[in-house]
Amino acid sequence: MAKGMQERSGGQLLADALVANGASHVFAVPGESYLDLLDGLYAVRNRIQLITCRFEAGAVHMAEAQGKLTGKPGVAIVTRGPGACHAAIGVHVAMQDSTPLVLLVGQIPVEETDRESFQEVDYRRMFSPLAKWVTQIDDARRIPEIMAHAFDVAVSGRPGPVVVAISEEMQKHRVAVPDIGPQRVLPAHPAPEAIGEVMALLARAERPLAILGGSRWTAAGKAAIRDFLVGNDIPVAVAFRRQGLFDGTSAHYAGDLGVGADPGLVAAAKRADLILAIGTRIGEPVSQGYTLLDMAGATPIVHVHPEQSEIGRVYRVALGVTSDVNAFALAMAGQRVAAPRWGAWRQEVRAAREAQAVAPEYEGPLNLARALQALEKELPQDAIFATDAGNFATWPTRFMHVKEGQDFLGPTNGAMGYGVPAAIGAAIVQPGRQVICFVGDGGFLMTGQEIATAFHHGVAPIVLVFNNRMYGTIRMYQERTYPERVSGTELTNPDFAKFIEAFGGHGEVVERTEDLVPAYRRATASGKPAIIEIRMNPEQVTNRATIADLRAQARR
């Protein structure tokens, strides 16, 4: 035994490994498969805050939100079998959103393997399509090594989730091994010739468009890429649900390329003669179903991504730059084109965005566009937005703007049930910042019970529930394809304000345009977790079309 090194149980070693690798919070639903790890976490309770959640998917969404906000791996722990299956939703979010995450899953005793023991699952097989790496620890001596590598993998290249199964009896074994912390690795910088080639392509352009996406952006990186793009008068779009990467109030902001993108922005992207795709994978939502650009490279693309295998995966590009996004941004910050020729182009693209943000005259007492625009003026400069998936999400995206200093969390994989847990996780890991959540009635009743976690841990997000009594996105597609044949998309809901009042929180119901801001002010003043239920006109199924409109279009 090395001098000064004491024997520790596997459970204690796992907890100490989390400390050694910088974990500040652990989001968990307890299970008997990791009792020894829970005991280890008790011993380090002054170093790591254990957040007790109500559903495994909610726990992983909270950890994923931490990963998005901090750029460091969020950590979740779930039990075997059903717990792991529930958690898989959050792993899929982290994978498609390129979010660093470490998920620990309790496992059966090794000696029972392949007997279909109680809650037995082979996690390597189960999670292999969903995670960057899946492993299992059966030997307590290897805990420090494997846990350190798990954290390293989660942040390397294209960030993503790592799943580590921890067998039950291994956690009881006592061994004497040293802790291992994260590996210090300098970020990948653009090749020396890359900067000149980017600027040469830009100098030849007449209609450039930047698309910002990806994860693990730092404040310095965002400021540097802003200085480069604004300094060269380039219009800037953000990838699907990446609104926190660029100031939406800037004269250079062109909108978001994703589900429900502004038609004017889509048209501009098709007319662009140079695309600067920085951080984004140019995936299906951003590329509008792979229709936005020519895959053979007719439109020159500069693609900057930390994972080389993502460059050229779908689109042949004029220049691929393998680089950490922040390193690339800092390298480009001072670069200037001698005489940009696209001032009128930038103004045209911006004008299209401004036109889309003008509130139409919607029928009924609630003009949701105007209500949200009034709400935007009330929000703190460091507010955190957390959104769920669904048609409702296109309303704040179209009519509100995320400002510099604010953050935006949303599932690029379209997972319903993300918003409420993400908002709670954000409020826990960044106390002092106001968190506002946008969620539909369908998504809220998938994980809305996690509001109990907010009360349990003393945080107070404000949740806006957009209630149109249907699965709105599916109803939209249904009416386009099978008009008037409503099947499976209608919903029966509770009184959401009373739901949170039952916990001791603050509830409001909004049915008119002018009622949203006063309700928000009262919710904020209450200091409690709050729900503002916005009762929408079900006929207005999207911010651009009514059900009658969709039916008429389908009959043409």
General description of the model:
The protein has 556 residues and is an alpha/beta fold. The chain has three domains: 8-175, Rossmann fold; 194-355, Rossmann fold (3-Layer(aba) Sandwich), CATH 3.40.50.1220; 359-555, Thiamin diphosphate (ThDP)-binding fold, Pyr/PP domains (Rossmann fold, 3-Layer(aba) Sandwich), CATH 3.40.50.970. It has 20 helices and 20 strands. Strands 3-2-4-5-7-6 form a six-stranded parallel β-sheet, with helices on both faces. Strand 6 (133-137), helix 6 and strand 7 (161-167) form a beta-alpha-beta unit. It is globular. The termini are far apart.
Which key terms come to mind for this protein?
556 residues, alpha/beta, Rossmann fold, six-stranded parallel β-sheet, 20 strands
CATH architecture of the largest domain: 3-Layer(aba) Sandwich
Which word captures the global form? Answer: globular
Q: Please, how many helices?
A: 20
Strand numbers in spatial order across the main sheet = 3-2-4-5-7-6
Residues in helices, as a percent range: 25-40%
Major sheet, described briefly?
Answer: 6 strands, parallel
Query: Spans with pLDDT under 50 lasting ≥5 residues?
Result: none
